[in-house]
Design a protein that fits this description.
This protein has one domain (about 5-140). It has four helices and no strands. It is elongated. It is an all-alpha fold and about 140 residues long. The longest helix has about 40 residues, at about 70-110. α1 (about 5-10) crosses α4, α2 packs antiparallel against α3 and α2 crosses α4 (about 70-110). The relative contact order is 0.10.
């Protein structure tokens, strides 16, 4: 899928009710305030920290008073979040494939395990795979 198509589709489907705008904008405002506090405490970026703190408090305040005024900020933030999520999901699934699935396949191949019977013979009476007689389990008994 295409990044632009996916993000446009998701942005069109955003819930833009006053409640959703209030929650999203207040969350963003509080997050910006906390980032500003951390910058203020751990770095020497005083002006940037102060700007983030003031903007975060202002955004949270406006979100509670007039949530519909925050619609553009909310859309911009959600667009950024959707783009970031698009990339992160691709990276995470790639890592899962190469760290988990591929090694399992390689180990199975080394030990000769076949998960699928790919040797298809057309002239067989039945394709039923016979299991060796051994331990019979009665699934109706619970003990």
């Amino acid at each position: 899928m295409s990044l632009i198509k996916d993000v446009k589709k998701e942005v069109k489907e955003l819930e833009l009710t006053p409640r959703a705008l209030r929650r999203g904008s207040a969350t963003l405002g509080i997050a910006l305030f906390l980032v500003g506090m951390m910058l203020h405490h751990f770095t020497s970026y005083e002006l940037t920290a102060l700007a983030l703190e003031v903007f975060g408090v202002f955004l949270a305040f406006v979100a509670f008073i007039a949530p519909m005024k925050t619609i553009d900020i909310y859309k911009a933030w959600m667009t950024f979040a959707l783009v970031l999520g698009w990339f992160v999901s691709k990276i995470v699934f790639t890592l899962i494939f190469y760290v988990v699935v591929a090694p399992i396949g390689l180990v199975a191949k080394l030990f000769g395990k076949e998960f699928l019977d790919l040797n298809f013979k057309k002239k067989r009476d039945s394709y039923w795979v016979k299991k060796p007689d051994g331990h019979h389990i009665n699934y109706e008994k619970m003990h």
